Structure formats: structure tokens, C-alpha cells
Amino acid sequence: MHVSKQWATTQQNLTQLQYEHADRTNQYHNVSVSLQRTNQALQNLLERQRQTEEQCKQMWQMVQGSSHIQCIKDEMSDGIRCGSCQQEWKLHNLHCYYFSTDMKTWHESKDTCASLQSHLLVVNDRNEQVFISSKMNGGNYIKYWIGYSDEGTEGLWYWVDGSRVMWKFWKLGQPDNHRKLEHCATTEESCTLDSWNDDTCSKKYRYICERDAEHRVFDMRGAFA
After folding, report:
1. What does DSSP say about strands 206-212 and 144-149: parallel, antiparallel, or unpaired?
2. Residue 128 region by backbone torsions, left for phi larger than 0, else alpha for psi between -120 and 50, else beta
3. How far apart are CA 121 and CA 96, in angstroms?
4. 47-88, pLDDT tens digit by residue?
């Protein structure tokens, strides 16, 4: 009877030890998982720091030798798109614009812009026309060639890059094809946004070149989350 009682007590103690062992094993597993997660979180933080430093370095490189830098929200990602232009080019909406000081014919201007990896100005919306007008506000009423022409078919105006004609900013009474010789468009300073005029393509005026800004997309979510 005494031996049976001792055996029962031993069995209970063994069962208790087994429970305690299982509990400690489970605690060890939880601690191990927690350490792994903490380590992974630390690695992610270090990687984000590295990405931030790299993106800051890239943005700094973009600024070097550039007249401006501009950043806008990128609609295709959760980041931002930053663009820059070289000296003597003006930056607007991730496009670069060159306002010449020399004068050429319309075709010479078109070729010069092409040699600069750009094209004669193409106005796609009112905001762009506002920007162009603001840069001509010098009181000299200087004319600039833009990339708009109806040389192919009279009255059928087209942009040099093939863009659809969505907006028109002709001066009052223009285009009038004076003496049936005016097939290329100019823009000049005006008290309104309507500043375009058709003119003879062989005349020499200043010109405006346009091209995409050098840009990069920065994943700010990945860098700062």
C-alpha cells in the first residue's frame, strides 16, 4: 500500500515535470520566433536606411549641374518622380524648355532643337501656355517659333511631335495666312494667353525647344516607412 502511494506520487511528479518541460519548450520557441522577427525588423530598417541614403545621393547628383529640380507624386507608384534640367533650360512639369537668343528660320529652328535632343515647343494644355507666357514677360514683344505648322495642307495645323491638337491660343483674327505665305506659328508676349500668330516660315525669329527632363522615381514608401 505504501509503495503504491509512492509510485502514484512519482507518476504525478513526472507528469508535472513533463508539463513544465513542454511549457518551457513552448516559451523557448516563442522567444526564438520573437528574436527572429526582431532581427528581421532590424535588417529591414537597415535596408531602408541604405535605400534612403542611396536615394538622397541620387537626388544630390541630379542637382549637380542642373538649373532646377522638381518633384511630383508619381501616379504609377507610391513614390515621387523628380526631374532636373541642364543650365540655360527652364523646368516645368518635368519638361525642360530652352528659350534661344539667336534667330533662325522655322526649319532651322526645328533642326537645331533636334540637335539638342529636343523638339520645337509643343503646347499640350493651358498650364503649359501660362508657363511659357510667364517666361516671355520682358516687355520686348520678341517672337519665338513654336512647333506648330500647316505646311502640309493649308488650314490643317499639326504639332511637330505628332501630338493631338487639344488647345489653341491664337491671337484675335489669327491665323489669317496673310498673302497665303504664313504656314508656321510663333508666340510672343501678350496681355492675354492668346499669343500665337501664323508667319512666313523663312523669317528669322528666336525659338523655344522642349524635351523631357532627366528624371528618376524614388520609392519614398520603401525609404521612410
Report:
1. parallel
2. alpha
3. 10
4. 765 665 565 455 545 444 445 677 766 666 667 778 889 889
